[in-house]
Specification:
The complex is a heterodimer. By secondary structure, chain A is mainly alpha-helical. Chain A is built from 6 helices and no strands. Chain B has 2 domains: 69 residues; 31 residues. Chain B is built from 3 helices and no strands. Classes of the chains: A mainly alpha, B mainly alpha. Chain B: Pfam families: COX4_pro.
């Protein structure tokens, strides 16, 4: 099938992301990657749990002294909402409504950027208020590696969406780029899945003690 | 061609049906989003209420697991057909993840 073929909303296939062989392969390959990502984050979570509050002296701040629930709550809501907006984008992709898909992706990017801004503020705050840095303690190293790795995933996800939008903005939807948008949105949802565990295991359980 | 999905004999009816189905699915997504917000609120409230960690930890972990299931099966469409291999990939990852965390919090560091 010609991947550049022009469609209308009536001829657009029901699962455009899996209509071509390339799309099917992308879909499977991407889920294999997500299985690997699960293991990657598990090793970072395990390290964090083992090294939490392991500091060299009593002058170092511990998790319970630093974490602030309102900030984490705002960040959680931003990322959770951005997950819904990217679902809306895929809803319009399947309905062959390119304009609306683009609008929802831009909203998703905006929410992701806001999340990133709060995260940068949070790290800055810890470094300057509590002298909690990457090298200050085993706790610091484990914390910044885990949360920073997630933040890096957010950066990659945002870059991915932005590049896709720039590259395809005048092209319209076809069977060549539909799988690309679909896979990028799967990645974005996975970032939210990881965040659910970060706010639960790191922040909420950290506040309980 | 073989890779093209078959459409019903009457494309007009099929189109309407598909639109309706997509809309219903979108409504499901909004419902699961509301549930996820609700679970997040309960988790934060459980922590702020200041109960003992023996009670709070299991509640938090169960809420997180439920939220992730909603995210995977609805937002990431794992409830749709043709996700068998996908589930194999993901659950293989989850199994290794579980063993890794279990090892680190029990055997390695205690």
């Amino acid at each position: 099938m010609d991947t550049q073929e022009k469609f209308t909303s009536r001829t657009w296939p029901e699962s455009p992301e899996k209509t071509t062989l390339e799309g099917k392969n992308k879909f499977l390959g991407f889920w294999l990657f997500l299985g690997g990502e699960t293991v990657l984050f598990a090793s970072l979570f395990a390290t964090y749990l083992a090294l939490k509050d392991k500091v060299p002296g009593s002058d170092h701040y511990l998790a319970i002294d630093m974490y602030e629930l309102p900030l984490v709550f705002i960040m959680t809501m931003l990322l959770l909402t951005s997950s819904l907006t990217s679902v809306y984008a895929m809803y319009h992709m399947k309905n062959y409504n390119f304009q609306k898909m683009k609008i929802w992706l831009v909203v998703t990017i905006g929410l992701g950027l806001a999340f990133l801004g709060f995260e940068i503020y949070e790290f800055y705050h810890y470094v300057h208020e509590y002298e909690h840095t990457f090298t200050s303690s085993a706790f610091g190293s484990a914390f910044y590696t885990l949360v920073g790795f997630h933040g890096a995933h957010v950066v990659v996800g945002l870059g991915w969406f932005i590049l896709l939008l720039i590259r395809n903005t005048n092209r319209g939807l076809n069977l060549y780029n539909a799988p690309k948008f679909f896979v990028a949105s799967l990645y974005w949802h996975f970032i939210d899945v990881v965040w659910v565990f970060i706010f639960t295991v790191v922040y909420l359980m950290g506040m309980v003690g | 061609m073989a890779t093209q999905q078959s459409t019903s004999a009457n494309p007009k009816v099929n189109y309407k049906y598909r639109r309706k189905k997509a809309k219903q699915e979108m409504r499901q997504h909004v419902t699961s989003f509301a549930l996820m917000i609700f679970m997040t609120l309960i988790a934060f409230i459980a922590v702020m209420a200041g109960f003992d960690k023996i009670y709070v930890y299991p509640i938090l972990l169960v809420l997180a697991a439920m939220q992730v299931v909603l995210q995977l099966y609805y937002f990431m469409h794992m409830s749709h057909k043709g996700h068998g291999t996908v589930a194999l990939f993901l659950y293989s990852g989850v199994l290794v993840a579980f063993i890794t965390v279990l090892t680190f919090v029990t055997i390695v560091w205690w």
